[in-house]
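Shipment paperwork, digital attachment
Item: protein structure file
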Amino acid sequence: MNYISTRHGSALGAGGSPAPLGFEDVMLAGLARDGGLYLPAEWPQLSTADIAAMKGKPYREVAYRVMQPFVGGAFDEMTFRRLIAEAYASFDAADVAPLKSLDGNLHLLELFHGPTLAFKDVALQLLGLMLDHTLLQRGHHATIVGATSGDTGSAAIEAVRDRRSIDIFMLHPRGRVSEVQRRQMTTVLAPNVHNIAIQGTFDDCQDLAKACFNDLAFRDRHALTAVNSINFARVMAQIVYYFWAALKLGAPDVPVAFTVPSGNFGNVYAGYAAKQMGLPVSHLVVATNTNDILARFLETGAMTISDVVPTYSPSMDIQISSNFERLLFDLYGRDGRTLADAMTAFRSTGTLKVGANALGGVREVFDAGRLDDAGTLAAIADCRKRYGETLDPHTAVGYAVAQHHRRDPRIPMVVLATAHPAKFPDAVQKATGERPALPPRLADLFQRTERVDGLPNDIAALKELIDDRMAAREQPMRVRI
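Attachment content:
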């Protein structure tokens, strides 16, 4: 399996053509050196027989079979199977991602049974192990710089805490994540964990993280890598649960639709990838809150940045969905240089438009809907009343939007349940009158000591903090990744 950048400039081969990279290099780099995102040069294909052969298999086996084509020879079979088993050993659910039926054809895929109670654990527990294994094998050290709208940060920190091969600097927007989300990050006092609260929005945090990567001297000095969904290894691990759910519902003989609460587009893009690999995905529904840039694009063909509005579903309070570039790459005919020009113009003007033909192709696969805060509370209350299930606000957005975008009621619709309701107790209590309790292993979260650095939205201040913190840490020699 070879990988290329969406901007086709990370490394050029003979004649100026893009030189593909292998899985390990892509995983370690995270973001391409040309500012683009990595993705497979060609999607691996699973035949109907290949998919049918996974029926009845445990999650770990489905994970191995779906992901093995992506990793190629990066890990031998025994090692890769061991890493997968270790990644999911800490999950509360034996089958990792339980599928619950709400009615005959509406289902919840619970992705929050990992150590930090959010879907990010499914990918990041594995990514942390793969990174550590590869770095130790090479005798290298890496520095993670990431941005989080709430859940990625805690999942990434939990995945790499106390690992000598990795330091992690995680940026979150001050006051714009839930208290549970914040404390899950800031109460991890491991010496390799550095939490930074930025005065700004998630988009500001994401821009700061990307600026660190785009300063190639700084990037090389600290051997930067990423665990946000800009890292394709994250997307790879998320593809698995689309196959898992579809198999439970009769695939490959039965098509399945999915509704995905979406902010940064990485989770729903994994569903698109599953479809490209041969999974019979009927369509994908992008569910957004008031920060609806993705829904507006699918309606009009234009991405236009507006101000970020705080909501009850803060992990979706995003206006610049970085993973959307991977889909745009296909819409631009995989012409990386034209896409690079379009993305530069987008950041300059705040608007990006695609033609009617490209938009028509997207609409064959994607639908979209939005839900405001009042609707979110109503959806939480409705699901609790009708089905006895308590949803977090993000899942509630998906639950409500799904019911307005079922193209064919005979086709199963799966709503991705992205977080445990106890991560957002204020909104759930407002909707239901009851405050959801944290699992026993997190019962003392509000009594734990916090450690966090505060910074303005300033790249120089961030680089100075990272330089100073890493100079104070005794680490092995860093090499360019």
